[in-house]
TrEMBL record:
It comes from Saccharopolyspora endophytica. Residues 19-30, 172-185 have a biased composition (Basic and acidic residues). This is Uncharacterized protein. Residues 155-166 have a biased composition (Low complexity). Residues 1-30, 127-201 are annotated as: Disordered.
Length: 201
């Protein structure tokens, strides 16, 4: 009985073993805490990385939208500038055509306008003629003077005819006045005739 009861009881740990075990547990807890801290740092770094990536994507999208809006404005400005430049080229071409139609040769047009070659002068003249035929140039608008129904002063042959008509009317009036002034009065007798009549009587 005594032997069986002695074998069934576990031997009590010594104080040294207990202390070593406690230190081991503490080291394990410290290592686990450090490991959790390191894992938390990794988790935080992952979150920062992903959030920064999303911010970069959003910023890139916003920048592309702003650039696209600015590019549309730039394209519109460039289109307006090209249109104005095209109009000025048309003016130059019509000016070259006007010089050529005034009697200057193609070579003289090139010299007057300081063009690089006679070919360029011919090209300008052709372009001016094309624009004039299309009726889209300012030269044609300047050359075409709209007639007014009233208050318009006639020019050219019409003015000459109107002036001639007015002069003729004035001349007719003057002739009428002269005729009235120099018309012989039926009751007027010259003095010589009157004296001769008295002598004969």
């Amino acid at each position: 009985m005594a032997e069986s009861s002695t074998r069934g009881r576990r031997p009590r740990r010594s104080t040294r073993i207990s202390q070593r075990l406690e230190r081991a547990r503490q080291r394990n807890a410290d290592q686990l805490a450090e490991q959790r801290w390191r894992e938390q740092r990794v988790e935080d770094a992952l979150r920062e990385f992903i959030e920064a990536g999303e911010a970069i994507a959003a910023e890139d999208a916003a920048c592309e939208a702003k650039v696209a809006a600015l590019q549309r404005k730039i394209d519109a400005l460039c289109a307006e500038s090209r249109e104005r430049v095209t109009g000025e080229h048309t003016r130059q071409a019509q000016a070259a055509l006007a010089i050529h139609e005034a009697g200057r040769t193609v070579e003289q047009v090139g010299e007057l306008l300081e063009l690089r070659s006679e070919k360029e002068a011919r090209r300008l003249i052709t372009a001016g003629r094309t624009a004039a035929e299309a009726g889209s140039g300012p030269a044609q608008e300047r050359d075409t003077v709209p007639a007014k129904s009233s208050g318009h002063r006639p020019t050219g042959a019409a003015a000459g005819e109107e002036t001639t008509g007015a002069v003729s009317g004035e001349q007719r009036q003057l002739r009428g006045v002269d005729g009235q002034q120099h018309r012989p009065d039926s009751g007027f007798v010259p003095a010589a005739v009157a004296d001769g009549g008295r002598q004969n009587a």
